[in-house]
Amino acid sequence: KNILTVGAVEPIESGYSRKEDVILGDFSSWGPTDDGRIKPDIVADGIDLISPIATADNAYANLSGTSMSSPSAAGSILLLQEYYNKLHPGVFMRASTLKGLVIHTASEAGSDLGPDYQHGWGLKKKKKAAAVITSNNTKQLIQENILNNGGVFSLPVIASGEGDLTATISWTDPKGAVETTNILNNPALKLVHDLDIRIKKGATIYQPWILNPASPSSAAQKGDNFRDNVEKVEVTDVIPG
């Protein structure tokens, strides 16, 4: 639940401009997990990447695979951690915060809006994630809190009107029960701490994205996510102020 799973997509030579630009590698595995969680979490370039190989100390080759997309994503994400530490000396983001930041800033991929079981939450965008770190406490906000069992945390927000209002929550969840019977394709939920995030505007309540593992090809909907330890709410009809 707590790892960041990375799918592989083709390189976008001209740069990302729309979700149709993201083309999944034909070898990249799809979700959902047995209990319906969203996997992969994100996708990254994993086709024809130049990589060192073991035939000699200075040998390289063009390789493809999630074995390429995953380490390239890991290197980018480590740079985000280093940048955060540079702005906050002596402090590093929690693993769940870093994972949440990457998912929060991923660019849309797939045929429908929201996450899906092929591309996860979308294409990794390091520059966009770094911009959140840069503008933290102004137009963007990164917070790390402790929520006690049954507790509630509220945060007043004033919309700038400069685009959608997006909020993401991510936490490190304890391990779920290990199945000893009915092991194959067991749909029993593995989430231990079911945190929930909502955005409220007057009487209107905006819920996070959810997917239905019983119909994995269906578009994401809005509702109560009781499977994933990442939740993301996007509000498109925000009014400045």
How would you sum up this structure, described in words?
- The protein is of the alpha+beta class.
- It has three helices and ten strands, in the order E-E-E-E-H-H-H-E-E-E-E-E-E.
- It has helices at 66-87, 95-104, 126-134; strands at residues 6-9, 42-45, 49-52, 60-63, 165-170, 199-201, 204-206, 209-210, 221-222, 230-235.
- Strands 1-2 form a two-stranded parallel ribbon. It has a two-stranded antiparallel ribbon with strand order 3-4.
- It starts with 5 loop residues before the first strand and ends in a 6-residue tail after the last strand.
Question: Can you summarize this structure?
Answer:
The chain has helices at 66-87, 95-104, 126-134, and strands spanning 6-9, 42-45, 49-52, 60-63, 165-170, 199-201, 204-206, 209-210, 221-222, 230-235.
